[in-house]
Amino acid sequence: MIRPILKFGDQPLHQPAADVREMTADMQRLIDDMVETMYAAPGIGLAAPQIGAALRIFVIDLSLGHKADDLMVFVNPTFVEREGMQLEEEGCLSVPGFNATVARPQRAVVKGLDRDGQERVVEGTDLLARAFQHEMDHLDGLLFLDRVRGIKRDLIVKKIRKLTRTGKW
Ligand SMILES: [Zn+2]
Fold first, then answer.
1. Is 119 a catalytic residue?
2. Is 123 a residue whose pLDDT tops 90?
3. Neighbour-count burial of 68, counting CB atoms closer than 10 A to its CB (0-12 exposed, 13-18 middle, 19+ buried)
4. Per-residue pLDDT tens digits for 43-84
């Protein structure tokens, strides 16, 4: 089922999510909904808090669903390694219409459970490392805007507040 994606200002996006304790049928359904919602958006990644579930799960597919093997599901992910730094423009399904340059690791290794509860370790560089850090941030209640400082951030937040006031957010 495609679920509504929460936007900047919706509280679940700004709070840390909890570990998944058991891979129940409800969790499988949540993961299915996340994948479906990500593809429909379309986006290359989605974290559970973005659809209002305060749980440490994210899904990533850099191919936007074009390559079956590219779909990754991470439950209770943690970083094993992070190194280097890249600066690129970044956006988020929860902050539609806005982009900003964000510093991210050049390479990141994530360890977590897949949807069957099996442990997996995946190394990402460039865009995948960026996506890992972006989605992990969602699980900690952070949006990319929280990693942007100064005038750029103030400007975006001001525009979002205005959109919110006029019922367009
Ligand atoms: Zn995002």
1. no
2. yes
3. exposed
4. 999 999 999 999 999 999 999 999 989 999 999 999 999 999
Ion ligand 1, residue ranges at CB < 5 A: 92
CA of 26 to the centre of ligand 1 (A): 23
Q: Does 128 score more than 90 pLDDT?
A: yes
CA 46 / ligand 1 centre spacing (Å):
6
- Burial readout 133-166 (b: 16 or more C-beta within 10 A, e: otherwise): bbbbbbbebbbbbebbeeeeeeebeeebeebeee
Cα 143 to middle of ligand 1, angstroms = 6
Q: What is the pLDDT of residue 84?
A: 98
How large is the greatest C-alpha to C-alpha distance in the chain, in angstroms?
46
What does the DSSP assignment read for 64-102?
TTSSGGG-EEEEEEEEEEEE--EEEEE--TTSTT--EEE
CA distance 93 to 79: 23
Alpha carbon of residue 47 to chain centroid: 4
